[in-house]
Specification:
Helix content: 40-55%
Order of helices and strands: EHEHEHHHHHEEHEHHEHHH
Largest sheet: 7 strands, mixed
Number of domains: 2
CATH topology of the largest domain: Spore Coat Polysaccharide Biosynthesis Protein SpsA, Chain A
């Protein structure tokens, strides 16, 4: 079955994010990389970017498969949720709770708000009759213009089709841990769900939206905040019957392994496991503190527990 795609792009000041600088022009090029897809695509963006998005799809002969929805003030779409996110993130204790305060989910209310709004845009497109059937969220910057692993933009000149079961399909970077406290996931910033692609039938998106919004509000009531990847874990815990989980190896696998098998990938080293990363992280901390016995214990733990 064909898949309708919804995506969105707004200026969040990325070019000023130290260590995570990606300007608006770069994101427009990221979109151009996959914009040859022949699927119906709906793009939510601010008025200044709308003509550029339309021109890209038109250049590929896909103007009739494209709808651009101009949104003058994205923060007004769910002003109450944005206010709560901004309040929760406006205190130092919340910032310093995160392991890596450089990452935008630690300090940017705009970023976390936008990540939580992905399902809003899809539900809005469904209600407007712009999409139906199987509907996918795809990040505007999906694959980072070839830097994410898929290397040939011309190979996106196809219609993405796959017979997904009537569930909300999440693609996992790590196996779900049903018992781990959410506050610990927020603190360590570990990633279970890849938020760049989510697929579901149109009928299930409103419930997923409701669960996502409630998950964000639950965090803010505790003075915490995080992006859509943690919110997805929370929605799955609340309604596991709604979901089908797919453990994948790469950030592009939601497309590559489910209808885009022809897409060429760059050669890469095998992905390190969470066990490796966590033991390495703790070992480096202990070494920096001069606690050498504990550092060597972390290294030994990795070799003892690895498969």
């Amino acid at each position: 079955m064909s898949i309708d795609i919804v995506t969105a792009f707004f200026d969040m000041g990325r070019d000023g994010w130290s260590g995570f600088e990606r300007g608006n022009a770069r994101y427009i090029e990221y979109f151009r990389f996959w914009a040859r897809l022949r699927n119906r695509v709906v793009v939510y963006t601010s008025p200044e970017f709308a003509p550029r998005v339309e021109a890209i799809r038109d250049a590929f002969g896909l103007a009739d498969r494209t709808t651009v929805v101009a949104v003058p003030d994205v923060h007004a779409l769910d002003a109450d949720m944005y206010r709560r996110i901004d309040a929760a993130m406006g205190q130092d204790i919340g910032l310093n709770f995160h392991k890596d305060i450089r990452r935008p989910e630690s300090w940017s209310a705009k970023y976390n708000y936008f990540m939580a709004m992905k399902s809003y845009f899809i539900v809005d497109a469904i209600e407007k009759g712009l999409v139906d059937g199987t509907v996918a969220w795809m990040d505007f910057g999906f694959n980072h213009g070839g830097g994410g692993g898929l290397i040939d933009a011309t190979e996106f000149d196809f219609e993405w089709r796959h017979d997904f079961a009537p569930k909300v399909h999440l693609f996992l970077a790590e196996d779900m841990d049903a018992g781990r406290p959410i506050f610990d996931i927020v603190r360590t910033m570990d990633v279970y769900v890849q938020g760049n692609v989510i697929v579901a039938p149109a009928a299930l998106w409103p419930e997923f939206r409701r669960l996502t919004r409630e998950a964000m509000l639950s965090l803010t009531r505790c003075g915490l905040c995080d992006d859509d990847q943690t919110l997805a874990v929370m929605t799955w815990r609340e309604r596991p019957d709604l979901f089908e989980l797919h453990r994948v190896q790469h950030w592009y696998d939601a497309v590559k392994c489910f209808g885009g098998e022809h897409l060429s990938v760059a050669a890469s080293e095998p992905r390190r496991s969470r066990l490796y990363r966590s033991n390495k992280y703790r070992a480096r901390i202990f070494l920096a503190e001069g606690r050498y016995r504990l550092a060597w214990r972390q290294i030994a733990n990795y070799f003892r527990k690895r498969p």
